[in-house]
Amino acid sequence: MPELSTQSLAVPVPGGELELSWAAVTDTGRRREVNQDAVFAAYPLFVVADGMGGHVGGEIASASTIDRLRAVADSGHVTPKTIEKALARAVKDIASHPDATDDGTGTTVTGVFLDTSGDAAHWVTLNIGDSRVYLLRDGAIVQITTDHSVVQELVAAGRLSPEEAENHPYGNVITRAVGPSDGVTPDYVRLDVVQGDRFVICSDGLTKELTDYGIRHFLDENADPADAAAAMLDAALENGGRDNITIIVLDVGHPASDADGEGSSSDDSSTDDA
Predict the structure, then answer these.
(1) Distances from the Cα of 83 to the Cαs of 79, 89, 111, in angstroms?
(2) Is residue 127 within 8 Å of 50, Cβ to Cβ?
(3) Contact 53/100 with Cβ under 8 angstroms?
(4) What is the pLDDT of residues 91-148, one digit of tens each?
(5) Residue 80: its pLDDT value, please?
(6) Contact between 106 and 148 (Cβ < 8 Å)
(7) CA neighbours closer than 13 Å in the CB half-sphere of residue 115
(8) CA 92 to CA 80: how far, in whole Å?
(9) What pLDDT is stored for residue 48 in this prediction?
(10) For the chain, which terminal residue's Cβ has fewer other Cβ atoms within 10 angstroms, N or C?
(11) Which of 70-74, 89-93, 197-201 has the lowest mean pLDDT?
């Protein structure tokens, strides 16, 4: 088990200050020889990439994508435009790498960033592929991102039930990825900032082994992000660990001005496209 610790940061936002706490972990799992997942978790960007293709192609694709996104986060200007420019650069990196020439080489990229550019702070999720962002709010867990996968398209078309989808033979086939032959425009969803929210950003190595209910259970049982991530990883490994497993748990505290019942946090729990 990798050593896990929770990081915390007080973030200035319009109208006050936001307390964020997070932990991230990635593990090869029990059946894979190499870890083709990659992860970056540092304010304001929290992302997971799950690579695919060839013996090392997937590892190159996910690492290249995360490296390009890390540079965006370090610049302090995380927007859909800067993300898409970074992903376009990652596509060129992957295409030019001599060990990433397989037609199936590519990577998912999924995550969330905090947008403080407007009158109120908002979260924005981004997604390409079938890694996921979950949100636990008011005791209910919701998958915010929509999988780009053959199975999800069949479910959306009414040709497959969610229960049938869990063990479908095409369960690993995704319809969008960051790679030499694919587009690089993510789906975005904007979310209000709400005190007490907990995000889970994960590769499908977790969701192959844990149901949404299972993820919620471990969040409910572990208030600390590092403890929650470790508990989910342990359970995924115990349930088979059939794939690489990557997990970020991100907790949203309250702005300092909320002590007076005011602040930038919104009571509106609606979501909308960015």
Answers:
(1) 6, 10, 11
(2) no
(3) yes
(4) 999 888 877 666 678 999 999 999 999 899 999 999 999 999 999 999 999 999 999 8
(5) 96
(6) no
(7) 21
(8) 19
(9) 98
(10) N
(11) 89-93
DSSP track, 18-71: EEEEEEEEEE--SS-SS--EEEEEETTEEEEEEEESTTTHHHHHHHHHHHHHHH
Per-residue burial over 217-251, b if 16 or more Cβ lie within 10 Å, else e, is: bbbeebebbbbbbbbbbebbbeeebbbbbbbbbbb
CB 117 within 8 Å of CB 111:
no
- The string of pLDDT tens digits covering residues 220-268 is 999 999 999 999 999 999 999 999 999 999 999 865 444 344 433 334 4
pLDDT of 167 reads 67
> Which H or E run includes 272?
strand 271-273
Residue type, 211: T
Residue 89 backbone zone (phi > 0: left; psi -120 to 50: alpha; other: beta): alpha
Question: What whole-number distance in Å separates Cα of residue 36 and Cα of residue 142?
Answer: 26
Contact 37, 26 (CB under 8 A): yes
| Main-chain dihedrals φ then ψ at residue 206, nearest 5 degrees | -80, -45
Helix axes 225-238, 212-221, angle to 10 degrees: 140
